[in-house]
Amino acid sequence: MSTKDFKFQITRHIEELSKKTPEIYKQFYPSEAEEINPPCMFEDPLIEEKYTVTKGLIHKYGNRALCMLTLVCGAYCRFCTRKRKVSDASEGLLSDEDLEKIESYIVSHPEIKEIIFSGGDPFTNPAVLKKALRKFGALPQIRVMRIGTRMPIVSPQTFDLSVCDVIRELKQPIYIGLHFEHPDEITEEVEHICQTFRKSGAILFSQSVFLKGINDDYDTLYELFSRLIEIGVKPYYIFRCDPVGGAYHFMADFEKEIDIMTRLRSSLSGMAYPMYIIDVPQGAGKIPVPLNYWDFDKAHYKDFNGIDQHIVKGIEMNDFELVPARKPIKRKISR
Ligand code: SF4
After folding, report:
1. Residue with the nearest Cα to atom 1 of ligand 1?
2. N or C: which end of the chain has fewer CB within 10 A?
């Protein structure tokens, strides 16, 4: 599958939120701007395919591995880094045999101490998620497990909290990474889910992406990070948008991002302030971006391997206006 085959799918909840908040609409509804694809954009910016060691398992960094339990999400974000394969439901299905192979790989690599369950969204298939948590949680070498999800945000009314029973059983700490982009995504239902997670013993953190016209302004991010810490979610990462095919129009101005993060550093508490990161295209690590307290070269940086990288500039605000949704490829409303 290519980034062009990425499906359109939203939930009823996102449909309702989108009517009130254009910044939520823009995240999920296709736009003609997705056709703008300069050569600096990639199908697989983080070269995850290269590090896929068996179906569903990416082992890129020594002590941790990423397990893609499914390629299905509740709603598909148009800027998704994995849009080359996410939304391909049949390809993403992991059989018991696939899970066995993943387990064998982990056992033969005792340096792996942490499993990150991702996808797609693992909470779209709670049965498989519970099975995987129990299976890998039983391995003595696994000390930490993480689950990345956007399901509480896109479909809070249908969210299955039965995974909390398994979290309570496990001896490892379970970290749940929630993907938020805008403060209007924090509804009462989302707050309730976070509270239930916390009562089960899970530790909550957030991940966000800088998105042009959606959250690339000081007030929006100030409110987002302040609200997150109030509902017990530690803001962990805000990423520069990955240069993935069809997402060029989402890339905000780099200097503007730095200015916003510099101002936020002085006004937010340290607990509410996330790390601002570039996940280096071509896969060589998550590099923290310095703030304007320092003079630094804003066009270049070095990756984890010491190799020079340059900033992929986003298009200027006036170069392109986001246009209304074109005809959906596929539409499904979750209830
Ligand atoms: S929820 Fe995550 S995996 Fe799913 S489309 Fe959005 S960014 Fe991609």
Report:
1. 150
2. C
Task: Locate the DSSP E strands across 10-168.
Answer: 52-54, 57-61, 64-68, 114-118, 144-149
pLDDT of the chain, 335 residues: tens digit per residue: 777 789 999 999 999 999 999 999 999 999 999 998 888 888 888 888 899 999 999 999 999 999 999 999 999 999 999 999 889 888 888 899 999 999 999 999 999 999 999 989 999 999 999 999 999 999 999 999 999 999 999 999 999 999 999 999 999 999 999 999 999 999 999 999 999 999 999 999 999 999 999 999 999 999 999 999 999 999 999 999 999 999 999 999 999 999 999 999 999 999 999 999 999 877 788 999 999 999 999 999 998 889 888 888 765 434 444 444 444 444 454 44
Q: What does the alpha-carbon distance between residue 244 and residue 225 come to, in Å, rounded to a whole number? A: 25
> Residue 309 C-alpha to ligand 1 middle, in angstroms?
26
Residue among 79, 40, 39, 36 nearest 281 (CA): 40
In a domain, 316, yes or no: no
In a domain? residue 325: no
Please tell me whether residue 310 adopts helix, strand or coil conformation: strand
Quick check: CB of 78 below 6 Å from ligand 1?
Answer: no
Q: Is residue 81 within 8 Å of residue 46, measured between CB atoms?
A: yes
Please work out whether the CB of residue 185 comes within 6 Å of at least one atom of ligand 1: no
182 lies in some domain: yes
Query: Which residue of 7, 44, 48, 73 sits with most ligand 1 atoms within 8 Å of its CB, as the best mutation to test the pocket?
Result: 73
Range of the domain at 273: 3-310
Judge contact between 24 and 12, C-beta under 8 A: no
Does ligand 1 have an atom closer than 6 angstroms to the CB of 10?
no
The total number of structural domains in the chain stands at 1
Give the CATH number of the domain where residue 179 resides: 3.20.20.70
Angle 256-42-278 from CA coordinates, rounded to 5° = 35
